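Recall from the previous lesson that a structure prediction takes nothing but the amino acid sequence as input. Here we apply that procedure to Queuine tRNA-ribosyltransferase from [Clostridium] polysaccharolyticum. The sequence below is the only information supplied.
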Amino acid sequence: MYRLITQDGQAKRGEFHTVHGVIQTPVFMNVGTAAAIKGAVSTMDLQKIGTQVELSNTYHLHVRPGDKVVKQLGGLHKFMVWDKPILTDSGGFQVFSLAGLRKIKEEGVYFQSHIDGRRIFMGPEESMQIQSNLASTIAMAFDECPPHPATREYMQNSVDRTTRWLERCIKEMKRLNELPDTINKKQMLFGINQGGTFADIRIEHAKRISEMDLDGYALGGLAVGESHEEMYDIIEKTVPYLPLEKPTYLMGVGTPANILEAVERGVDFFDCVYPSRNGRHGHAYTNHGKMNLLNARYELDDRPMEEGCQCPVCQTYSRAYIRHLLKAKEMLGLRMLVTHNLYFYNKMMEEIRDAIEHHRFKEYKKAKLEGMAQGE
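The prediction returns the following tokens.
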């Protein structure tokens, strides 16, 4: 259940009640694709850095270790020792990114595993069954993530199929949630809005799926090659046609600037690999822009990555030490950067929630963007 606490313009401040706890929104979900954050960050670390929701990947966990294995071990929460909410994506994006290895039909998609090449079939029912075995808090509907750019005709046909698949997802989840051996009988379902950069297709699709009264709604198929301006325009035009009293999730986005712009347009949920991926490449997010810790200027710099930062890394270690670890190819350096970056994102979301509550989000956004634009 979603409770809208207040709005500042279109920006929403809410609470989403789930069987695994309450999510304060807007929220950034920390991405743990294969039930682990890349960069050796544990669930104990996630607790310390203010993580509210962990996101795992249906396709990857289905391929390895197998969703039935996870179910036998008590579900994803027990498996990875995490008691807060988990969102699992449907596997759709991964399946469709394997462009050369897949074949789309009405019943679902036939594709080859990227690990061992074995043939796999996934459709709406299979995706729901896998996510039910994983026992996540929130399951995502199985959709087609169309290529960018795509013709109008392709996009319309794709969106129509996604709607038909959503109806099948709803039916299958209802069935699964009523089975005696289902671990999480209160699993929630989010539908996904598609339509590329065709605003009218997006709007019509938003209207159609809003009628289905789901637990939440996502904007999919963005940040796949279109410009930031195009993405913001689509968000601005589509969000008003999604239910205000339900959470809105922008999938796979983005940079701190992307998040601030999308919050201003009414988005509640975010996820992105940037903080962990950039950390693994030696880059740290700070309020004064992105830092490349591999730079020679940090060799003798005994200051923390960001002065005033309360993350466990900045409270303890210097730029010089972290740079040394990166240069020596020690995994600890990557772990420190990923920890800091996730803390930075989680802290930013906390600041965003506070700014919306006090009706000063525009001022906050302006100051945050100006600070981050400074760079090194």
